[in-house]
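sry for the spam today, last one i promise. struct tokens for design, 559 residues
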């Protein structure tokens, strides 16, 4: 699978009230020692077209810089929020970040002695400029920050919001900061490619061509010596080509799904090759279009939910890249154990064909020659679709289609359009069902916001929605999501979340099917210090905001 949705939603519960966040490794030096040395090759499987045009604008999410991830090494955020491990917040360009009690105001202290790659000093003015750019340009507000005011206060910068940012701390803190002295002359920040990239990060662009991008380490980086002297970013046409490169050692660091990753990658060099799926709070869902038949009927949604074989999904579709999804709330475990309501602590998914048939029979469904028919006598038929080439997702919907045919007699078809068509279909509602991920954070709010918030329907533009693709409408759920996000204490958040879980379980707005870990592959032949299951200081995905943190944590192997 190739992720193209911009996922900068690693929100975290980093503190209570106005606690200052001063996470570990805040100086960025934890792995750096001595002089920069060696190189690493980073790759994606999105095709050569990504390298046809140099786009270093970090707000253009489909440009070369953000698609490949090299922008993460050039433009840095105020802080990095960890969606795994202890959900800690690590100050980065800010030396300190402080939220007020209701998370409507953020005070940040800019780090001193930081220089832009063109030699000019980084100051509080750059922070003010960047956030005002977002405030004044709605198309850049990718995280829905809803800023009302940004200003300097002595040595600090104070950001005010129209609503609580408790659930979106990552969206706020992980905005890439850009230099005012360069960007104030950018006429349209939504379109300018910014071919001359000026950042505070540890690298600058050495070369850009259709063959790849080469970054070179700065010698004046504020975080100290950059461990790796050179980064090479390459594009492959598909997962198969990138897998071969990983197997041969041509590529060192990537993010792809690998069928039977143990055999096809790890075992090729078991001493050095690592495949890690960081288990974040993001399940994969069968997103069903609740705005039309047949999934506008809760009885059918419930019945389908009752016959899905989630173990088969984890083993066959996902090759055990992540744990099986077991809890009926859809919350991945053990990461989300603390958030599961007491009523559902021990409620796990079980295949119950007889129970599913009773639900359907009670709702007026019948069978004719083994085929399920709805109360009007019409055969139940629908199509599951996911992009061709997304092997794990296509295998997933094929499994579901087979399960529904054999257990309930549903005429479930599978379609595999190209990715662009699929994304357009999902946004416009031109589908019956798709296998899709949800946003992630250090609490389950994004899971339910993505599947039950009808505000996205009200904000639809030309019939296209940006989330809640299943078009589920429930005023109570929408109100509870807002209540959770704006709550001032943990008890109020828990009460709202318990009610959201009940609605999700009872009304089945989407069908949770598996966990959606952040996948990554790397090797330890040249460098060590990578995040892992035993050391979850970040995910290992090279396209995420934490990629720069990972890079600065590395050190040469054998030293």
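last one done:
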């Amino acid at each position: 699978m190739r992720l193209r949705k911009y996922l900068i939603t690693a929100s975290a519960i980093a503190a209570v009230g106005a606690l200052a966040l001063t996470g570990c490794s805040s100086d960025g030096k934890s792995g750096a020692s001595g002089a920069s040395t060696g190189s690493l090759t980073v790759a994606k499987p999105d095709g050569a077209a990504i390298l046809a045009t140099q786009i270093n604008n970090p707000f253009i999410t489909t440009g070369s810089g953000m698609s490949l991830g090299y922008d993460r090494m050039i433009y840095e955020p105020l802080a990095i929020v960890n969606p795994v491990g202890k959900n800690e917040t690590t100050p980065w360009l800010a030396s300190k970040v402080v939220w007020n009690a209701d998370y409507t105001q953020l005070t940040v202290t800019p780090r001193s002695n930081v220089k832009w790659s063109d030699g000019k000093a980084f100051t509080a003015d750059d922070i003010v400029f960047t956030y005002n750019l977002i405030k004044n340009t709605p198309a850049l507000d990718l995280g829905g920050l809803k800023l009302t005011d940004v200003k300097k206060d002595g040595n600090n910068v104070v950001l005010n919001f129209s609503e609580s940012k408790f659930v979106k701390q990552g969206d706020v803190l992980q905005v890439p900061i850009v230099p005012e002295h360069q960007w104030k002359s950018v006429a349209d920040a939504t379109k300018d490619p910014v071919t001359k990239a000026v950042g505070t990060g540890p690298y600058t662009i050495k070369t850009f061509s259709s063959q790849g991008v080469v970054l070179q380490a700065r010698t004046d980086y504020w975080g100290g010596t950059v461990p790796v002297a050179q980064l090479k970013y390459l594009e492959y046409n598909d997962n198969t080509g990138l897998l071969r490169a990983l197997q041969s050692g041509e590529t060192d660091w990537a993010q792809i799904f690998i069928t039977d990753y143990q055999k096809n990658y790890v075992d090729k060099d078991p001493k050095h090759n690592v495949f890690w799926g960081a288990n974040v709070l993001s399940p994969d869902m069968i997103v069903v279009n609740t705005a039309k038949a047949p999934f506008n009927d809760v009885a059918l949604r419930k019945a389908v939910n009752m016959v899905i074989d989630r173990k088969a999904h984890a083993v066959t579709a996902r090759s055990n890249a992540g744990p099986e999804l077991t809890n009926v709330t859809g919350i991945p475990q053990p990461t989300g154990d603390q958030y599961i309501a007491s009523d559902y602590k021990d409620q796990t998914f079980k295949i119950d064909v007889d129970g599913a048939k009773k639900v359907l029979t009670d709702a007026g469904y019948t069978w004719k020659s083994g085929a399920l028919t709805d109360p009007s006598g019409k055969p139940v038929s629908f199509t599951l679709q996911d992009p061709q080439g997304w092997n794990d997702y296509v295998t997933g919907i094929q499994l579901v289609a087979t399960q529904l045919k054999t257990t309930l007699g549903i005429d479930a078809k599978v379609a595999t359009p190209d990715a662009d068509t699929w994304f357009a279909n999902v946004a416009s509602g031109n589908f019956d069902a798709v296998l899709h991920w949800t946003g992630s954070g250090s609490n389950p709010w994004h899971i339910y916001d993505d599947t039950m918030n009808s505000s996205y329907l009200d904000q639809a533009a030309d019939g296209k929605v940006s989330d809640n693709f299943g078009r589920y409408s429930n005023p109570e759920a929408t109100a509870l999501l807002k209540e959770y996000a704006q709550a001032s204490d943990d008890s109020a958040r828990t009460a709202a979340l318990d009610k959201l879980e009940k609605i999700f379980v009872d009304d089945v707005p989407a069908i949770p099917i598996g966990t959606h870990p952040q996948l990554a592959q790397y090797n330890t032949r040249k460098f060590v210090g990578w995040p892992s299951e035993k050391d979850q200081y970040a995910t290992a995905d090279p396209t995420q905001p934490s990629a720069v943190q990972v890079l600065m944590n590395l050190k040469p192997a054998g030293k």
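The longest helix spans residues 391-408. ok im logging off now
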